[in-house]
Amino acid sequence: MAKNWLQRGELLLGEDKQKRLKESHMLIVGLGGVGSWAAEMLCRAGVGTFTIIDADVVDVTNINRQMPALACNVGKPKCDIVAERMRAINPEVTVHVKQIFIDAENIVPLFNENSFDFVVDAIDTLEPKGALIRMCWERGIKIISSMGAGAKANLADIRTGDLWKSEHCTLAKNVRRLLRDWRGKYKLHVIYSMEQPRKEAIQPNPEGGKPIIGSLAYFTATFGCYMAEYVIKEI
């Protein structure tokens, strides 16, 4: 590109921060309704290198809220779609794609083989989320973590702050319980909502497994934008 496409952002961020973003390596885990938008915003901010992780393919039920979810993309890996979009935004970006589920076994080699400047945690499954958070704490890597954005719709109730002080979020409550032995040793900056979950927006799954939870794009995308804002401020 002939012109400096980052000119408008650099006017706000300054030359030094823009340079740090370009030289940084971000790990984004989870490319759903929150993580996909965080990835988009960080790419447009000029982050130079990404490792993106998500094991899922696009499902038709993702279309109402997820960046990679288009009717023409149903059945395609989310990672591949997000990587293609990042390269379309910035042809010079480096994107490492891993279509895997994070677990206790593969997380160690992932961090041994890479040097991450920041981690964006948009996982919605408890045990992998805990493993990722603990790994970042152990290695002193900056992390921002998304709590629950389902069954909620009021943007005015979105908050950012310490995990241990968050309220009215079932996922945050469960994460606190999972990490209770670490309380007092580490803080975790999280995005959460003070809104009480709407009971009518949670239904049993007729096929079994996790319940079906209502969600809207403007709400989950705002979570993603808050995560990107925090990364950009803290990098």
Put simply, the count of helices is 8
Q: Uncertain regions: pLDDT < 50 for 5+ in a row?
A: none
Strand tally, please? Answer: 9
Q: Which radius of gyration do the C-alpha atoms yield?
A: 17 Å
What is the structural class? alpha/beta
Which word captures the global form? globular
Salient structural properties:
7-stranded mixed β-sheet; two-stranded antiparallel sheet; alpha/beta; 235 residues; single chain; 8 helices
Question: Could you please describe the fold and organization of this structure?
Answer:
With 235 residues, the chain is an alpha/beta fold. The chain is 36% helix and 16% strand. It has eight helices and nine strands. The two termini are 25 Å apart. The mean pLDDT is 96.
Could you give a quick summary of the protein structure above?
With 235 residues, the protein is α/β, with parallel strands linked by helices.
